[in-house]
Amino acid sequence: MGNKAVFLRREVPFYYQNRVHGTCGPLSICMIVDAFRKPGQPGVSFTDYEYLIRKLMDSNITGGVPNNKIPLGLDYFNANYELIEGDTSTRLQKIRHAVGKDCPVILNVIDSFAGRRRGHYVVVVGYDDEHLFINDPYRRDEPLNEHKKISLVQLCKKNSRTSMVWGKRQWALKVTGFRRVKK
Q: Which residues of 128-140 are buried (b: 16+ CB within 10 A; e: fewer)?
């Protein structure tokens, strides 16, 4: 491949979380929905965003959205999607293929927040031989988290106390477009 970076052709807008924890899943959905909008169409409304938070957030956990609820948020917008499955190598190959076909991917990772390890959602927008490029909605004391470069070696570790890892579940969801709703 020659380590040439490949990015989605469609522009995926970048949104920061406006709350400390838990809204990365709804924001990842909003980034993808708005990436598929045609020029001139309005983006996801604040009302839709708040609806996603209420519908997807599980009050029995300390912030966050379980993996099985992300499809519910995509269904709200009539999205077509598929779970990316297989061993680690197969999943990475499928993520690269999805990006090459202009399909963004929601990735569930484990990351450190205020000294605690938590689940976190990001949107894969590109790759090269050694990295994934992501839109990371969490506000950090770092340069912009848009097109943030994540080492595949680090990401594929099963555990790390300090950096973003994919973890044991290696959950990823490819979004391919949206269904037309008959009126």
A: beebbbbbbbbee
The token pair that represents 22 in the structure block: 């838990």
CATH superfamily of the 17-178 domain: Cysteine proteinases (3.90.70.10)
pTM score, whole prediction: 0.88
121 compared with 142, residue with greater pLDDT: 121
Phi, psi of 28 (to 5 degrees): -60, -40
Domain ranges of the chain: 17-178
The 10 Å Cβ neighbour count of residue 21 is 15
Among residues of the chain, what percentage have pLDDT more than 90? 46
Rounded to an integer, what is the distance from CA 43 to the centroid of its chain? 18
